[in-house]
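Incident log, structure service

09:12 report received: a user says their structure output differs between two submissions of the same chain.
09:20 pulled the input from the user's history:
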Amino acid sequence: MTQEQAATGRPSGWWGGESPLLDDDEARRRLLDAASRCIVRRGSARIRMAEVAAEAGVARSTVYRYFPSRDDLIIGLFLVRIDAAFASVVAGLEHPDDAARSLPELVLGPLGYVEGNPLNEALFSTGSREMVVALELRSVPLLDAAYRQFGPLLERWQAEGQIYADVDLRDAMRWISLVSIMLLSPPWSEQPVGDKRAFLDRYFVRSLVAGSR
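09:34 re-ran on a clean worker, output below:
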């Protein structure tokens, strides 16, 4: 045991305390990294705050200082990843001037960030999918982050008359998120991409794109 450990009763590497020893951004990053490791290890988002505290080497009070609940911690994990992921989806569109051809890609594109990614697979595993979906659908910060990337496209398509003028675009963003989540869940998660695309063309695109009915 080191002199520091003997004096404090805490393991080496401990950085939390009654007063923060790191700037807020660095503290949040460390806690989110610790939460990611816990989720991957469990294979589920149903982690405990005490687990995250132990992984990060801090007291539980430090975790609660930055994330008042487990829900806030999970939302924080999405927020640090959503901008880059959705920006990549937009950048990869083959037909960004064509709403009917691009809207299915806004639904299918994010799905590619789940398969093969241990953290995302754990977040959307059978054991935690219901909890994560409920968080996604009611989180205004997540909606804002998604709209920050997809919104300019939706606004342009609507201004050009491609999307119905009476469509509320933030509601459309919720619809995109909801359909993406549905396709991540059984039985759709087991269906070929071609079947998913056909479903999107038949129902999703027709609900938004003028002249496609």
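09:41 both user submissions now match this output. Likely a transient worker issue. Closing.
09:42 reviewer note: Residues 95 and 123 are 31 Å apart (CA to CA). The radius of gyration is 21 Å.
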